[in-house]
Amino acid sequence: MADGIISNGTHNKKALLSDSQLFEAKFDELVAELIERDLKDPGLVDALNRHREVLVYNVPGGKKNRGLSVIGSLRELLPPSQLTQDVVERALVVGWCIELLQAYFLVADDIMDASVTRRGQPCWFRKEGVGLDAINDSFFLESALYRLLRKYCRDQPYYVHLLEVFTETTFQTVLGQTLDLMTAPPGDVDLSRFSMEKYKTIVKYKTAYYSFYLPVAAAMYMAGITNEVEHSHAKEILLEMGEFFQIQDDFLDCFGDPAVTGKIGTDIQDNKCSWLVVKALEVMSPEQRAVLEACYGRKDDASVEKVKALYKSLQMQTLYHKYEEESYQRLQKLIARCAVTLPSTVFLNFANKIYKRNK
């Protein structure tokens, strides 16, 4: 780690940087590790330069809550005396591995959804000269994370645990994506496929495992916590949190400001099984359902605006804010009940980052 870029818990007397600053500073070092120091074959120069562009364009642009949650959780799980510079460095690397996994999912997901923007810029596959080559670029992003895990963690007792939780989480996310794609095939609108039970299953597998359980589980393994009961309790809390997060995401896809969220919502056009449509189906009249069936999943602006007008007439914004408050209270009770041996701050810190967010 660069001189002066140090962690709390070390004995260096130089000014300390925040975890966010430490995390940001680590990215360029990891890019150099993957592109300049890892493979020396001169025949790979063009490919490695392309992969540098893939990394810089797709990995660092988000809020980084997932990656930062590794070091944030580890600080709650270990005493300061154990947070040596090496321990913090590895936590930062594992955090970036989660951001690489996220980038891998998003690059591929944007192709499947024919999305337009991501994080305030054109989706990677929409960049001139990229197109469907982005599929191979997504493979690179996934493989890169395992090279970093091997380099930085292979001599640690938790290495196999990390490999297992990353591969299992990837498998769970793929299952969720499969269910999402099967439930909402483009151009084949069938609202009878949508139910709250199916929606919650998609959310659990497609989002909650990798966005919420993975960062905390990684930190727990790094702290030497391998007890299945403790991981089960953490998972129960974090999957609930993941559901809360995804419902927020669905709401923002329709009602959020693209200038704030960084993406143009396409759930209505893409025939997505989102919380808004599932909840609307529960409360609407047969006449309103006929309007929804005629307009949902269509690409034209007029149809999209009719669906949004329908949501507004059903007071979906009010229903959402009611759900948000009830979910947060339920989450607080779940944390109080399940976080028995683990510090509740691990979960409360996460919850406070996402409650009432607007992007």
Automatic annotation (TrEMBL):
Pathway: Isoprenoid biosynthesis; geranyl diphosphate biosynthesis; geranyl diphosphate from dimethylallyl diphosphate and isopentenyl diphosphate: step 1/1; Isoprenoid biosynthesis; farnesyl diphosphate biosynthesis; farnesyl diphosphate from geranyl diphosphate and isopentenyl diphosphate: step 1/1. One of its GO terms (cellular component) is cytoplasm. It comes from the Eukaryota. Its EC number is 2.5.1.1, 2.5.1.10. PROSITE patterns: POLYPRENYL_SYNTHASE_1, POLYPRENYL_SYNTHASE_2. Its cofactor is Mg(2+). Keywords: Lipid biosynthesis, Lipid metabolism, Magnesium, Metal-binding, Transferase. It is an enzyme of class 2 (transferase). GO terms for biological process: farnesyl diphosphate biosynthetic process. It catalyses: isopentenyl diphosphate + (2E)-geranyl diphosphate = (2E,6E)-farnesyl diphosphate + diphosphate; isopentenyl diphosphate + dimethylallyl diphosphate = (2E)-geranyl diphosphate + diphosphate. GO terms for molecular function: (2E,6E)-farnesyl diphosphate synthase activity; dimethylallyltranstransferase activity; metal ion binding. Belongs to the FPP/GGPP synthase family. This is Farnesyl pyrophosphate synthase.
